[in-house]
Structure formats: structure tokens, C-alpha cells
Amino acid sequence: MARSLKSALRSQKGQSLIELSLIAPLMIFLAYGAIEVGQVISTHLTMTHTSREGANLVSRGTTANDALDAIIAASSNTFKVSNEANWKIIYSKVVQDTTVPCPNPPTTPCTYRIDNGPNGRLNRGLLVKNSKLSATGAVNEIVTIPGINGVIAGQTFHVIEVYYNYLPYIVTYVGKGINTDFYDRTIFTNVSGSV
């Protein structure tokens, strides 16, 4: 009887070891996937906050250069000098085209262009991407701003566009299954008397 009890215990230990060896790789794989999904969500949230804060700062009178420097410093875990080839932040100042008449109150949208002044368009980062505000992203080109119907004439818009080419931190299936070119944009009008 003691012998049969001893052999039963040995077989249970062996069975547990086999089960662990079969399940452990799957558990590790799932853990790496969860870490990767967390990194993707964190990167996306950082981009969203960066674009909103940048547009908010500039709309309240902060210079575009100072605003870009501040938002990059605040999100330094994502936008680093060491990975500068993986991201780009574009600031565009969009002003009404005064050569095209605009009805007041506007029944149709006014025509807006990217300001061709020295602070009309500023870039940070080395990722090769163009602004999505217009067909070519060139300065002084007509831009399309969604939801502009009903906006009074003479408004100045501040646009922050953030691009990020996500590279998986850990080689997993998650990084292969998603579009790794992230994009976010925020548009604010002037809140202060700044131009």
C-alpha cells in the first residue's frame, strides 16, 4: 500500500512538470503580448496629449518654438533624441486668405492657408512625413479644416500634427499585426489676443 501511494505521488509530480513545460511558453508569450499592447496604448496616449497640449499652449500665446520644446520635454519617454528618426511633430499656423472674400456671417467656409511667415510652419523630429492639412503640405497652400462651417471670419488656427513610427519593444506578434505609423492632430483657435 505504501508503494502504490509513493508511485501515485511520483506520477502526479511528473504530470505537473509536463503540464508546466507545455503551458509556460504560452504564458510567457501572452505576457509579452500584454506588455506590447500596453506600450502601444501608452504611445498613442502620449501622442494625443502632446498634440492637445501643443495646440493649447500656442493658442494661449506661447511661441510655437517654446511650445514645441515644452511638449517634447514633457513627453521625453516617447520623443527622444535617440529615436528622433521615428517621430515628427509639425506646427502649422493657419490664417484666413484675405484675397478670397468670406461671407459674414459665414454660410460657406472661408478660405484658409498655412501662414507663410517665419513661424507659419515648424518641425521637430527626423521622420520623413508631410502635413496632412493640404494636398502637398506646402506653406501657403489652401487647407481643409473639418468642422469649419459657421466659424466667424478672421480666425487663426494652430495645428499640431504628431507622427510616430512605432517599433515593438519586444519581438511579438502584436507589433506585426498593427499599423505602426501612428498619427494624431489637434486644431485650436486663438484663445488669447495673440496672433
Order of helices and strands: HHEEEEEHE
Q: What Rg is obtained from the alpha carbons, in whole angstroms?
A: 26 Å
Instruction: State the helical fraction.
Output: 25-40%
Shape: elongated
Structure, described:
This protein has helices at residues 2-59, 64-74, 173-176; strands at 87-96, 112-114, 121-124, 142-143, 156-165, 181-189. The chain has 195 residues and is an alpha+beta fold. Strands 1, 2, 3, 4, 5 and 6 form a 6-stranded antiparallel beta sheet that branches. Helix 1 runs antiparallel to helix 2 (64-74). It is elongated and about 100 Å long. It starts with a helix and ends in a 6-residue tail after the last strand.
In short:
By secondary structure, this protein is of the alpha+beta class. The chain has helices at residues 2-59, 64-74, 173-176; strands at residues 87-96, 112-114, 121-124, 142-143, 156-165, 181-189. The protein starts with a helix and ends in a 6-residue tail after the last strand.
Write the layout of secondary structure elements.
Blueprint: H1 2-59, H2 64-74, E1 87-96, E2 112-114, E3 121-124, E4 142-143, E5 156-165, H3 173-176, E6 181-189
Antiparallel strand pairs: 1-2, 1-3, 1-5, 2-4, 5-6
Helix pairs in contact: 1-2
Summary keywords:
195 residues; alpha+beta; 6-stranded antiparallel beta sheet; 6 strands
